[in-house]
Amino acid sequence: MDIEFAKKFAEDWIESWNSHDIERIISHYEEDLEFKSPLIVERYSDTEGTIYKREKLKEYFLIGLTKNPALEFKLEQVLLGVNCLTLYYQNARGGHTAELFEFNKNNKVIRSVSCYSF
User: Fold this and answer.
1) pLDDT under 70 in the chain at which residues?
2) For an engineered disulfide with 37, which of 2, 20, 69, 114 has Cβ 3.0 to 4.6 Å away?
3) Phi and psi at residue 87, in whole multiples of 5°?
4) pLDDT at 52
5) CATH for the stretch 3-116
6) Strands (DSSP E) along 1-118, which ranges?
7) Is the separation of the CB atoms in 26 and 49 below 8 Å?
């Protein structure tokens, strides 16, 4: 993972969410992906908590943006890995989220796993 790419991705990802621009947000993700979040379980009553297609992910994100019109994330830390990074940020609920992003060779997210503070 290149540190400059990681910084740029982190800044753009946070700015995308804070602007509520769904097309900009979803542009970070590959068409076929694996996205895991406890909120998927909550919103869809899906015990697997996983989304596999970008179009479904867009729908999921739009629910979050609609439910939280003042949504704002605050980046606290970027952690580097091999072909991946983790963003640690303050979420819209006032808690914290650690979100792991794995990338393909085109620098699109192919896997994301979210963990929330409680």
Assistant:
1) none
2) 114
3) -100, 130
4) 98
5) 3.10.450.50
6) 29-36, 50-53, 74-80, 84-90, 96-103, 109-116
7) no
